[in-house]
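tool_call predict_complex ligand=heme C
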Amino acid sequence: MSLTRLISLGAFLMASASFMGLAQADGDKKMTPLSPQYKQECASCHTPYPPGMMPANSWKRLMGGLSKHYGTDASLDAKDLQDISGWLQAHAGTYKRVSEEPPQDRITLTAWFTRKHNSREVAPEVWKRASVGSASNCVACHANAAQGNFNERDIRIPR
Ligand code: HEC
Ligand code: HEC
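tool_result ok
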């Protein structure tokens, strides 16, 4: 392997490792596996967002207002509410880039999200495509988002 290839491989590995820290948010090696209860209750309308992508306070607030959830009613019974709320807070992001509480408790309004999805990576008109619908629709571009995989290699921008 040539020296330049080695260097670019090194840079790639470093970037991936630092990003895994963000996605995972706790510096563990792998993404937190999603609890079946979370997938059941929180993935019927959208991608099951990884808990490590927002801090505990944001999840807590969000779970306290499910009857008015971004214009819809996502209420749960008391047991599911308690379990899922506890699970989200236990696996919330603590990594420094995720420590900020984003406006409206939206992952899509965090500074890191905006940076990673700048206009060079995603042209402004792409967000408006019917096949995308909204930035919150991760799975439109991240084919394996439901498995917690946001790897660059698995991104397909829909037409
Ligand atoms: C009845 C449908 C429905 C259910 C069930 C639901 N949501 Fe949502 N959720 C929405 C809608 C609609 C939005 C706004 C999406 C948009 O702006 O395009 C949203 C947005 C979100 C966002 C913000 C996404 C962003 O823009 O960063 C989070 C976080 C979220 N939901 C978490 C949850 C959690 C946790 C649960 C389970 C307790 C849940 N949702 C269950 C409909 C639902
Ligand atoms: C319109 C398509 C699109 C949507 C929708 C989208 N992304 Fe992305 N995402 C991208 C592109 C393009 C990149 C940049 C990849 C790169 O850096 O080369 C990216 C990068 C990322 C990365 C960094 C990956 C890495 O390895 O550096 C993460 C994490 C991520 N997105 C999470 C999300 C989440 C969470 C959502 C939903 C709340 C979402 N994305 C919605 C297109 C999208």
